[in-house]
Amino acid sequence: MNMNELNEPTASGSTRKIGPVILDLNNISLSFGGVKALTDISFNVRQHEIRAIIGPNGAGKSSMLNVINGVYRPQQGEIVLRGEHRKNMDCYSAAKAGIARTFQNIALFKGMTVLDNIMTGRNLKMKSNFLMQALYWGPARREEMAHREKAEEIIDFLEIQAIRKTPVGRLPYGLQKRVELGRALAAEPDILLLDEPMAGMNVEEKQDMCRFILDVNDQFGTTIVLIEHDMGVVMDISDRVVVLDYGKKIGDGTPDEVRSNQNVINAYLGVAH
Ligand SMILES: Nc1ncnc2c1ncn2[C@@H]1O[C@H](COP(=O)(O)OP(=O)(O)OP(=O)(O)O)[C@@H](O)[C@H]1O
C-alpha cells in the first residue's frame, strides 16, 4: 500500500482521501528558562486528516500549536511545511502559508458584531490599502463586497445568520466559540489549528461543534490539528492522535492504537477515567 495516500472511511461512511504529509515536526524542543515545555517531539500531519494532540494539563499541547504557527520559536528541531524546511515559523509566514488558529480563551473583539469579527479574518486577503478603503474608492469597494460575500457564506455555513449583527460579547460562550471558528475560516486556511474548540460547552454545543469541524474537513478539505480534553470527542473524530505528557511524546497513532497504549493509559486515560 502506498502510505502517502490512505483512503479511510469516516463515521458518516464517506471515503475521505488522506493525502501525503504536509507538516512535519522534527525533534522539537522548547523551554522557558528552566521549564522544558517540549522535549524532542516529532510527529507529522497528513493533508486532509484530523490530527489530535492530547495530554494532561501542562503537557505542552498549546506550546506545540504555538510552535506550528510561529508564536513560539523552539530552541531545537525543525518544521517542514510542504517540503520547505525551517528552524521556526513566524506568525505572518504561517498565516501566509495558510495556517489559521483559534485560541483556548476566546480572542474576539467583544464590542464588534459577529459579521465584523468574521471580516477581521479576511485581513490578510485584502489588497487595497488603508487610504483606498478610507475613500471607499472603486476597487476597494468591489474588494470589500467580495470579502463581505465570503463572510456571509461562512455565517450561513455555521448557521449563525440570526446573530450576524449581534455584538459578540452578548452571545453565550458556545456561540462565541463558533464565531471564533468562523473568523479562522474566513482566512480560508489549508491547515486549521483548534485549541480546545469544545472547552466549556454543554453536550448539545459540543455536538454542533463536532459536526462543524467534520464538515469543514469534509467540504473544504481543510487539514485540522486540534487539542481537546473530551476523550469521547477526540476518539470519535480524529484520524490520528499524538499524546504528550510533561513535554514528551508518549503515544502516536490511530484512536484504537492510542487507547490501548499502556503508557497513555498510565499517564492520562487511566487518570481521566
Ligand atoms: N509563555 C510561557 N512562559 C513560561 N512558561 C510557559 C509558557 N507557555 C507555556 N509554559 C509552560 O510550558 C508548559 C506547557 O504548557 P502548555 O500550555 O503548552 O501545556 P498544555 O498541555 O497546553 O496545558 P493545558 O491543557 O493546561 O492548556 C507548562 O509548564 C507551562 O507552564
Number of helices: 10
- How many structural domains are formed by the residues? 2
How many whole angstroms does the radius of gyration measure?
19 Å
Strand content: 25-35%
According to CATH, the homologous superfamily of the largest domain is P-loop containing nucleotide triphosphate hydrolases
Please report the first level of CATH classification, the CATH class of the largest domain.
Alpha Beta
CATH architecture designation of the largest domain: 3-Layer(aba) Sandwich
Q: N-to-C terminal Cα separation, in Å?
A: 36 Å
What class do helices, strands and sheet pairing give?
alpha/beta
Succession of helices and strands: EEEEEHEEHEHHHHEHEHEEHH
GO molecular function: ATP binding; ATP hydrolysis activity
Keywords: ATP-binding, Cell membrane, Membrane, Nucleotide-binding, Transport
Domain ABC transporter: 23-271
GO cellular component, one term: plasma membrane
Structure description:
With 273 residues, the chain is of the alpha/beta class. The chain folds into two domains: 15-98 and 189-273, Rossmann fold (3-Layer(aba) Sandwich); 110-187, no CATH class. The protein is built from ten helices and twelve strands. Helix 3 (114-120) runs parallel beside helix 6 and helix 5 (138-157) packs across helix 6. The longest helix is centred in the middle third of the chain and has 20 residues, at 138-157. It starts with 5 loop residues before the first strand and ends with a helix. Mean pLDDT is 87; it is low at 1-13.
